[in-house]
Amino acid sequence: MARFYAQVCMLVFLIVGVGGLFLGNANAVTTGEAGGNLGGITLQMTWARDAVDLLMFVLFAYVGLFASRSGGRLLVLAAGIFLLMLAALGLVVGDNAQASTGVAGLHFPVVVNIFDTVFGVLAVLAGLGTLGDAEVGQSRSVLRTP
C-alpha cells in the first residue's frame, strides 16, 4: 500500500513542486496581495515551500521505485507525520492576503493546510496499512505442500 501511495504522490508532488516554481514567490506583494497564487486560489507559494514539495517528490520517488517494503512503509509514515506537522503549524500560524505571517519562508493559507492534512493522513494510513515482509510470505492455504 505504501509503495502505491508513494507512486501516486510522486506525480502529485512533482506537479505541485514544479508548478510552484512557475507561480512565483509569495514574498513579492503587488496590489495588496502576495504572489504565488493560482488565479483566484490563494496558495502563496514560496521558494521554501517549492523546495519542501520537491524533496517530498524525491522521497516518494525513492519509496515508489526503489525502497524495500518495510523501509518504504517507514518512510511514507514519516512523510505523513511531517505533513501533519506542517498542517498543525499552519493552523497555529495562519496567513493573510499580504503573506505577512509565516515561518521559515513558508506560508500557510487554508488550501495548503487542507492539502497537507489530506496527504498527511493518507500517508499515515498507507504506512500503517502496509503488510510487513514476514507476513507476505506466509501461506494461508489449508493444503500443506511439502
Description:
The chain has 146 residues and is mainly alpha-helical. The chain has one domain (2-131). Helices cover 61% and strands 3% of the residues. It contains five helices and two strands. The protein has helices at 2-23, 47-65, 69-93, 110-128, 133-136, and strands at 29-30, 33-34. The chain has a two-stranded antiparallel sheet. Strand 1 and strand 2 form a beta hairpin. The longest helix has 25 residues, at 69-93.
Going by helix content, strand content and strand pairing, the class is mainly alpha
Shape: elongated
Helicity range: 55-70%
Order of helices and strands: HEEHHHH
Unreliable spans are none
Biggest pleated-sheet summary: 2 strands, antiparallel
What fraction of residues sit in β-strands?
under 5%
**Number of distinct helices:** 5
Kindly provide the radius of gyration, computed on alpha-carbon positions and rounded to a whole number of angstroms: 19 Å
Across the major sheet, the strand order is 1-2
The whole-number mean of residue pLDDT values reads 82
